[in-house]
Write a structure and sequence with these properties.
This protein is an alpha/beta fold. It contains 5 helices and 5 strands. Bound molecules: 1,3,4-trihydroxy-5-OXO-cyclohexanecarboxylic acid.
């Protein structure tokens, strides 16, 4: 099973970015723990980050060919990007939306996810654990297929 993790803008700054909200764990550390957990479940993962909306759209389009599940933290694009939503819908890939913070408990503009309606589910608010829970969800989605 192959899972692709795509991360949107400013997530490259994790560790130093607003640590009271996002914690002190870097994206590289999250990638390491995700890769280790995936290996235990006999899954392969690829992990990418981009600050560019169009690049994320291209990666989602390409993921269709090579992966079984997409785990997506579109960061701020979650709340604004019809293009990313359309790419997820067009890909037909089972997609799990993740967020470190609980977007529903924050500013009003973060309460809406344009991506959620085209995802299988949403995992929010558990910090880096959100990503590990997404692997469990991905494995279970594939098992049900
Ligand atoms: C985020 C939540 C978004 O609202 C925000 O723009 C981010 C990070 C999260 O993981 O908590 O950049 O996606």
């Amino acid at each position: 099973m192959k899972i692709i993790f795509l991360n949107g803008p400013n997530l490259n700054l994790l560790g130093t970015r607003e640590p009271d909200i996002y914690g002190q764990t870097t994206l590289a550390q999250i990638e390491k723990s995700v890769t280790e957990r995936a290996a235990m479940l006999e899954a392969q993962v690829e992990f990418r980050q981009s600050n560019l909306e169009g690049e994320l759209v291209t990666w989602i389009q390409q993921a269709r060919e090579r992966f079984d599940v997409l785990v997506l933290n579109a960061a701020a694009y979650t709340h604004t990007s019809i293009a990313i939503r359309d790419a997820v819908a067009a890909s037909g890939l089972p997609t799990i939306e993740v967020h470190l913070s609980n977007i529903h408990a924050r500013e009003k503009f973060r309460h809406q996810s344009l991506i959620a309606p085209v995802c299988c589910g949403q995992i929010v608010g558990f910090g880096p654990l959100s990503y590990l829970l997404a692997i469990e969800a991905a494995v279970s989605l594939i098992a049900k297929k």
